[in-house]
Design a protein that fits this description.
CATH topology of the largest domain: Four Helix Bundle (Hemerythrin (Met), subunit A)
CATH class of the largest domain: Mainly Alpha
Helix content: over 70%
CATH superfamily of the largest domain: Cytochrome c oxidase, subunit III, four-helix bundle
Structural class: mainly alpha
Order of helices and strands: HHHHHHHHH
Largest sheet: none
CATH architecture of the largest domain: Up-down Bundle
Length: 294
Amino acid sequence: MANAQAAHHHYFVPEASKWPIIATISIFTMFVGGALTLNNSGIGPEILGAGFILFVYMLFGWFGDVIRESEKGIYGEWEDTSFRMGMMWFIFSEVMFFAAFFGALFYARVLSVPWLSGAGAEATTHAVLWPEFLADWPLLKLPSDYGFSEAKDVIGAWGVPALNTAILLASGGTVTWAHWGLQTKNRGQLILGLAMTVALGAVFVFMQAEEYSHAYHELGLTMNTGIYGATFFLLTGFHGFHVTMGTVMLAVILARSIRGHFKPEHHFAFEAVAWYWHFVDVVWIGLFIFVYWI
């Protein structure tokens, strides 16, 4: 108890930990395994899988230590402030991450495609490289002698993408409703709201997987279908990965809520995951507008 009270006056300094070393080893192992896999090495997938398993072990161990320290009351206002600043910088880095991908899409659509059709001062580019090219987005007609494949069509905005938009917007509402339950000490509302959010996130991922299957096998839309296919799968794929990770994070918060963790005055872990989830929602709205709709 004395240590917990002292932590409110002095920043908590944890003991030496093995987890940073294990994190470094696991990431390096995944890097080596990924490189070997891309070079068609027989042992590459096994090394990649071993690194991934070690990485998951590190996540459970490291976050488990932090959770136990939090539940012991070790963390005070200083630690809470540092956690909030860390999460803010992390989300900012994610904003820059997606800004680069949206920037690539903007460059392709607004600059490169018009240049290839002879717009502006780049008329010679059109005449020399691709005289028959016509600026038309989504760009599906590609030169056959460069090894590209042509897609039959693109994913329409008002099918699965529109439904997934409604699902993510609804999930933002359910996680906020769960937060209200936590603040008002209504644990039933907290647990139900989180369970609904996890379910909506899982449905989103499932429907996107179905959409990818339809795009690959029926429409012929792949990473090899030129700049449209590349930007489509880059943006939607990384966003899908973020939704998957966000759903896992929400599931962990749900399990902790069921075990009685979190209080109205002490629940930053919940807030951090909620911030991340709202960020994922906002990114999807941008994706829906600029990738599927416009």
